[in-house]
Design a protein that fits this description.
Chains A, B: Keywords: DNA-binding, Transcription, Transcription regulation. The structure is a homodimer. The first copy, chain A, has about 160 residues and is α+β, with helices and mostly antiparallel strands. In chain A, about 40% of the residues lie in helices and about 25% in strands. The first copy, chain A, binds a DNA duplex (30 and 30 nucleotides) through helix 2 and helix 3.
DNA sequence: CCACCTGCTAGGCATCATGCCCAGCAAATG
DNA sequence: CATTTGCTGGGCATGATGCCTAGCAGGTGG
């Protein structure tokens, strides 16, 4: 479960050059191929590395607008709301949270006007009492994991 | 820039079985290898597919607590705050937004107690006026892109 | 103190995928 | 009508992969 320095270096290497093979990785890290293979297997069965799925940019798909919506849910309707939001393709992510809102979701849309349509679809559901939306203007720190990996592997 | 059905099917296939090769993908999709290769190249240079980096689970690294913090920033301090947050490994993501808060960031921590430390570090900076934090309890819809890809490629 | 187990190294081997080439062909474009 | 673009189907050399063996160091428990 804990990660050591070699694991960390391997993850960093894979993040920088994803198309690298096991053999090339072993050369870069200066260890035997079998070691890299074993570490990779372990990281994957550990769940540390969930997979190597393609990272798709919604903007390049024609959805350049991102927003976060905080939703307030009617008591006991949580399950229904979840199921409803799961059917909306523009909902990229949904969390239930503590705090004032009950749920937080990430939305994308084709334009600011289109965002209105998406929000209407999201909140046009009985269990949702109130929604407050924050439109993303900039993304100074895109989703990243490497700094955390470095910290977890002892810098 | 727009995506057709074959592109969509290719992305879905890669998302389901990331370790698949170009050759195997071409067999599954029933097209020639060169076609898959060309589509993949195009999707990558288009920026639709940003890469194939490993998806690392923070929980498996020992950071099972996720939270979203809404920050209010003192006028003119935006740049400094951004730079500050970029140095905190537990800040996985940072957006500037419209709405009441000025920024929204995703945090992880080793525990609820540790989250206090992280928040102190995040807000312990001059330009930040106020912070409100929502701790994630559940994640009913994990970050996903496939439904959007299907929609963008014409179902 | 010894036996054991685990993790890393180093190598061998057959199979398979890759990158790169070609020529042919169909549809869309000018 | 000529050209361009995208897909097909194939060939070929190189390289990576999956799977195996054997040796060796370190730590653990009897």
């Amino acid at each position: 479960m804990a990660i050591d320095h070699l694991d960390g270096a391997l993850i960093e290497l894979l993040a920088r050059e994803p198309r690298i093979g096991v053999l090339e990785a072993s050369r870069r890290l200066g260890v035997a191929r079998g070691t890299v293979q074993a570490r990779l297997d372990r990281l994957q069965s550990n769940g540390v590395i969930r997979g190597f799925g393609p990272e798709v940019d919604p903007a390049a798909l024609g959805y350049p607008v991102t927003a976060f919506a905080t939703l307030e849910i009617k008591q006991g309707q949580g399950g229904d709301v979840r199921a409803h939001l799961a059917t909306v393709p523009e909902v990229l992510e949904l969390h239930t949270t503590t705090g004032h809102g009950d749920m937080l979701c990430r939305l994308v849309a084709r334009s600011n006007a289109d965002l209105q349509r998406v929000i209407d679809r999201v909140v046009g559901f009985d269990g949702i009492v109130r929604a407050s939306t924050a439109i993303v203007m900039e993304n100074p720190v895109p989703l990243r994991i490497i700094p955390l990996v470095k910290q977890a592997s002892g810098d």
